[in-house]
Design a protein that fits this description.
about 575 residues; alpha+beta; 25-stranded mixed beta sheet; two-stranded parallel ribbon; 9 helices
Length: about 575
Amino acid sequence: MAQKSNRRSRRWLKWTLSLALAAFIIAAIAVTIAMRRAEPILRTYIVQALSDHFHARVELGSFHISVADGLWAEGRGLRIWPPAQVHSVAIPAPTPDHPLISLDAFRFHAPLRFSPGKPIHISVVQLKGLAVDIPPKSRFTHSLSAAPALNQDSGKSNVAQALLNLVLDSIVCTDAHLTIETSKPGKLPLEFAIARLTLTNIQPSGTMNFDAQLTNPRPTGTVFTTGTFGPWTVDDPGDSAVAGQYTFNHANLADFKGIAGTLSSTGKYQGTLRELNVDGVTDTPDFRLTHFGSPMPLHTQFHAQVDATNGDTRLEQVNATLGQSPFTVRGEIVRVPGNYGAAKPPAGQNAAPRIQGHDISLMVSVDSGHIEDFLRLFTSSGTSLLTGTLAMKTSLDIPPGANPVQQRMKLNGSFTLNGAQFTDLKIQQRIAELSLRGQGQPKEAKKDNSAAAVLSTMQSDFQMSGGVITLPDLKYSVPGADIDMKGTYGVDGGTLSFTGTARMQATVSQMVGGWKGLLLKPADRFFKKDGAGTEVPIHIGGTREHPDFGVDIKGVKTTSPQRPDQSQ
């Protein structure tokens, strides 16, 4: 009896397992059929919902769902085209060249358990290859009609109906790209490469938080930024609001031809994708012109308006410090397209447009700076030609191009320099000699320590072009002498070429002194002019390293001596 009972138990267990297996297979087949039926229904609904929201054509290449370890959904080839424009019947609307939004792939996971009427929370939606291409505002001239009601087909599967009520906790996107186009002729679009983007606090038609890592093309560096975005403006995505703060470190300024240094910047911004107000600070401890290589610390605090359709920047107020010299800057930095630096295209093909550079147009104002801080940028040794207190106003224009920045730089302004001294001892000694002789103290002029006590005052208009600074009306004053000069200074080689007239308080005989002065006393009346004791021609030539200073008295020229005490 026991054996017979055991055999019955085993047969019952086999039948139970067989029925369970059959039920599982039937259930799996049923779920598979349900998934296959739900996929096209849900795919159609997703496309319709996106089309209604963006008022545009939507394409979805593929969409699949599975129930292995919860509910998995993934799609590929999502394309959302810009909203259609309103045109007359006779003139059909043009076909957009690029989708407004394209997405290579997306994927998310949700639990299978859900309660009717309650949303399903999806912790993370993973996006890959997101590209957003925002056309210019002129393209958004369509009129929006009320969004059509979604087809509430009662035949939808329960799975599809449940998935229609989703709440996204976060979206993580990798390898994203944002392009903002412009309607301005000759302008290239502004592009951003986004290595990583995380969106949280996602609300339909509301704002969301973002945390992003962007690759800045020029100067090369990584920007970390957090803030809020939205709501998304369907009429014109470029008008969508954005606000946040950023950190930009270790940016290589050598990407801009002619300058170098490592820049760091922090700040905040707010506005729309097309019009941003940015407030920030920058620090470049080793700013320099690459042709000369003398680094100087540069700090700025700025307020700027950025046109994100083309990258043009209007500097409303920049408070800067170069070395120990404060100054202010206003102006514009405009991106210029072109083929500069591009390889020659194959025969029969046009060169692809490239960013040639930036056209910089600024107004610079220095109230009380140090001339040496600015001149050090234009020296290889780090020693400036002059020291003194500088007041200056000038325009600064730097067009793009292949030449070094000092060759492209254009200046047009005026300056006043007080308490000036030449750092070259030879020039300063000649200036001191001129001053003391002009005061009628020729004996003091022969002393070696006379140069340090003489301070000069300069003022002039100036221009710079092609690496040459022109001073057309330089007025140079030292105790005992006023000098009017004009000439040029070559930035690259430090070439000096100035001529002018020196008006001294003392007469010729007083300037020379001693028995020579007595012999020249009858000649005093020939050199007096307009109240000056003596008026004689003067010149400065040579180079910054090897200057030549001379005074011409009726054909008798006094040039730079080997020793100061050998001068006439």
